[in-house]
Amino acid sequence: MEVHNVSLKISAVKKEQYPTEGYPEIALVGRSNVGKSSLVNTLINRRSYARTSSQPGKTQTLNFYEVENQLYFVDVPGYGYARVSKKERQKWGKMIEEYLTQREKIHGVVVLIDGRHTPMQLDLQMINFLHYYELPLLIVATKVDKVPRSKWNKIEKEIRQKIEFKKQDHLVLFSAVAKTGVNEIWKWIEKRADF
Ligand code: GDP
User: Fold this and answer.
1) Ligand 1 atom with least separation from CA of 52
2) How do residues 6-18 score in pLDDT, each as one tens digit?
3) Considering the domain boundaries, does residue 1 fall inside one?
4) Among 135, 134, 133, 106, which Cα is nearest to 19's?
5) Which of 17, 31, 41, 121 could in theory staple to 12 by disulfide, Cβ–Cβ 3.0 to 4.6 A?
């Protein structure tokens, strides 16, 4: 999709604030610093629309980005940020659980994992959780420009093994720097959103 119009519709902390237009939603989840803002910015062709993390983990809201009046990207705040208090973490956990488990408008979830390392425990927990709720997943391995091309097959294989890949899951290697994987990601989104 060629994107010209994007606006931050709302930063929500509870379900009463979710948008009501009924557009399909694509949620994006991942650990802080994994490259989520960079992915959103790449998909919408902006240099720095979604905030890149100068303050990792600070955005504790669900950010609904309206794209071309037909779709929402929902930026779910990054998990695994050690410096927030236990109370804050619980509040955050409740907020994203409520969204991911109750929101019927979710057409798919993009799960970002760092392509330079094997998936971490927190990534695996998130993926298991999303599998349990039978949400269609696109696993995006980020920052692959940092990995030699000769190792890409190995990364893919390792990820598939580690996360108990389901047949309805998809995996894309992505780089915001080299723009690797952008078309494949858009293709998946468009299919999920029934365009
Ligand atoms: P977020 O916290 O998940 O939103 O992560 P950001 O998008 O802010 O990225 C975190 C850091 O990783 C920043 O320093 C980015 O410049 C860097 N980064 C993000 N994507 C890429 C990528 O594809 N390649 C490389 N080399 N660095 C990246």
Assistant:
1) 8
2) 999 999 999 999 9
3) no
4) 106
5) 17
